[in-house]
Amino acid sequence: MFARRALLGLAAALALSTAAPAQTQAQTQAQAQAPNPRVRIETAEGPIVLELYADKAPKTVANYLKYVDRGLFDGASFYRASKPPGYAPNDYGVIQGGLQNDPKKVLPPVAHEPTTQTGIKHVSGVISMGRHAPGTAQADWFIVIGDQDYLDADPKDPKKTPGFAAFGKVVEGMDVAQTILGKPVDPKAGTGAMKGEMLVKPVRIVRVRRVQ
């Protein structure tokens, strides 16, 4: 009787040990198939919904979601509209939003994930991180309106031209982004590359939340 119970116990243990790897594999597969997160930016001009490419730019997306989940973008603004001459006011350019390096809210910089690594090009609707040198991006980002491949890293020399870290794309609300791009800018405001590109009246970001 004792021997029979021992055999039954051994058989059960073997069944559990063989089932465990299958369960782990199933969990891994489910995680791999998980959809990319989406966030909704509520602005004074209407909502913009983004899909964030966590599968391609995991570090940049994780950084962005830290700000979203902590509510740090609530009350921020779109403050910049870069639109080169020769185009209609809302057809081509970038709009930039974020915390403008507010020392009370910014988190540590995120490692640079170039387009040569992620494969995410700066086509119309893409969201990308603002930065100074590569690896300094924190809490400011921009949405591209019109394809702008000059923002990509140069595949022939990515060290010389590292580009910007794209990490998602607008899936709803491009009309809102275009409306913001078309707003008046102050020709005297801003410094450096932002000279003449600061919005006269920044567009308030009411809140940014994940889309469930």
UniProtKB/TrEMBL annotation:
Source superkingdom? Bacteria
Has keyword Isomerase?
yes
Q: What's the short name of a Pfam family annotated to this entry?
A: Pro_isomerase
Q: What is this protein called?
A: peptidylprolyl isomerase
Statement: the UniProt record of this protein carries the keyword Signal = yes
Which positions fall inside the PPIase cyclophilin-type domain? 42-212
Name the enzyme group at the top EC level: isomerase
Q: Name one GO molecular function term.
A: peptidyl-prolyl cis-trans isomerase activity
Lineage of origin: Bacteria, Pseudomonadati, Pseudomonadota, Alphaproteobacteria, Caulobacterales
Q: Mind listing the UniProt keywords for this protein, alphabetically?
A: Isomerase, Rotamase, Signal
What PROSITE patterns does this protein map onto? CSA_PPIASE_2, TAT
Question: Might you give the EC number(s) for this enzyme?
Answer: 5.2.1.8
Q: Which source organism?
A: Phenylobacterium zucineum (strain HLK1)
Give the residue range of the signal peptide: 1-22
